[in-house]
Sequence to fold (772 residues):
Amino acid sequence: MRPLLLGMEWFPNEAGGLNRYFYDLLRSLREQQAIEARAVVLRPADGLPAYVEAGPDRAAFLPARLWHYARAATRQAHGATLVDSHFALYGCVALAAGAARGRPFIVHFQGPWADESRTAGRGSVLAFMARRALERATYRRADRIVVLSAAFKRIVVERYGVRPWDVEVVPPGVDIDRFSDGSRGEARAALGVPLAGHIVVTVRRLTPRTGVELLLEAWAASVGGRDEALLLVAGEGPLRGLLEARARALGVERSVRFLGRVDEEELVACYRAADFCVVPSVALEGFGLVVLEALASGRPVIASDVGGLPEALSGLGGDLVVPGGDVGALASRLLRAFEEPGALPSGEECRAHAEKFSWNRISERHLRLYADAAAGRRSSLRVAYVDHCAQLSGAEIALLRLLPSLVDVEPHVVLAEDGPLAGRLAQSGISFEILPMPHEARGFSRNRVRPSVRVAMPAAASAVHVARLAARLRRLQPDLVHTNTLKAAIYGGLAGRIAGVPVVWHLRDRIADDYLPASAVTLVRAFARFLPTGLIANSQATLETLAAASRRRDLPSAVIHDPLAARAARPPAARETTQLRVGMVGRIAPWKGQHVFLRAFARAFPQGEELAVVVGAPLFGEFGYEQSLRDLVRALGIEPRVQFTGFRHDVDAELARLDLLVHASITPEPFGQVVVEGMASGLLVIATAGGGPLEVIEDGVTGLLTPPGDVAALARTLRRAADDSELRARLGAAARERAMDFDGDQIGPRVAALYRRVLAGNRPGLAPSRNV
Fold:
């Protein structure tokens, strides 16, 4: 393996994150991986090794510098296995000169050059357009693009039209020998700062995107008036004068010290001198190398949720990420860090986290990437997942749980809107993009599906989106399209068919008149005859509503239940009282039956201390139903013993506070994820005997079943369970064991097997099967 790396200036002669990254990667490839990596940089530098060739000095005219760079790249490319460019402009020059001809061409994307230049106020609109065009041409020519974070992958995919399968997320490395824990006192003495008191450091280039002005405001609002507190600002940039003036205007000039540009020894001392570090970026932060440097030095980091910063801190804990641009949130977090012992991770935890990003590990990943690119290897199945919704509803939560469980599948999610799901995908490092669908189409309710003039505009908007999605799928070239919702099944199925890509429908809705309007049932069954090339149903009950009507005995299909979330080991929640807590968890909607639950609770416990808990919130215009539930509680006289919690992210925590879980849907449920979640938590679950829960619960063995909508029967079952603690314990234990069947490690391979059947053309039929 003999890669040629194309860089900018040579570090440490020229500082900067890109130059440091290039220098450390090249050094690690040669010293730790023992491969013959060579490099080209823009200008001569002191101490340049023999395996690095440099162009002319800074005084040369730009075209002359580029010409010399192109010649150097062409010379060094002889005998190279591949070319790895670290800046779009020089990569483009090398391509034009033929340096990458006949060799794999890899590009490192470390930020949108055109956007960063515009943000910094450099160049005209014409210059911006030229830079963007050059970037697009370079990235689209690349065989692989390396990005620092999933956030940057999204930028490359959406802004430059690159296929997600060509983008590899490889975080930066950190020199864990150079950046290490050391004496806080010695470091402070070296910097000439007080030996006692609290010191916070931010290492930033002083430009608008790095958020130092926001940090000064948060500092003034929280700890800036304390005599023992000092903020060190290490770095230089065009905003320094303005920031110093801003510190004076805020009255914090005595507790803020601007250090200017610092050398390597001073940088190490800055981290060691600090109690913790702050990275308050407001835009265009790829990963945050300073985060890793601080952590490797044993110092915690508080950062904004911008770009790749949340990924850099993911798994460390300590509530270290605050909303970007939110002065109040940052001020509050700074105050907590000062006043609450244990509010930040320990030095040992920080160091252990940083060691995951050692250059030895990161260069090993580059070596594997180089080998795959050189050999043209591709092992994973490429699947585009289409979803019209970005809210955290049942289908979207199920998708979040499914994707990490898929082995040898490279997923890319295409959403029709932005929303909480996008944030969760980013946190999980899952590739996604947003291809916006007009609201009149995306928000069109299935209850309004009927022939009328009012459907003309949503239908036209949907047709336009189908055409756009089909064009995007042609560009993406996935092996399969997997539609995650009923609406996505129609427009995603049409787009997939137009693009010539096989389509797998994932049905999570029963296609029946008691669940959907008759017109919607007719429409879905009609499309089912020709759109899907494969079918996954979340329950036998769901599959049976489509099997007979589709008239397609050749369609590969499977009943695959939705997976459970990966569960962290945690002790049972501490109970403050012995009060029995009975709850429902899930979306508030009339068909979910919260009104049945509340009436049954009032009948079962008319005078007791038992507590009813309703966890969830309404979606899709069902807010009036929630108000009717509150009115019902008052009418039943149980208002003091009913809690409405609203939406909750941590469902496990809510379940841990319950003694009984009720599932009261009045219409047969397609599956019922919360039923399995409750069982996995060791709860006795009382569910209605219809749809998916019938496939999950064995009555009297792993839970209890009651007729749908039967208030009296549910009340009797509640009373029975409340009076028999041994029954709750026995059925709860059996339920936990049954829930193991829904672990992602078991569900993921079944989905992948269905994909393979679709692609292989194995068509055993749509006959329902309980054991798939």
Q: What stands out?
A: Residues 568-575, 762-772 have pLDDT under 50 and may be disordered.
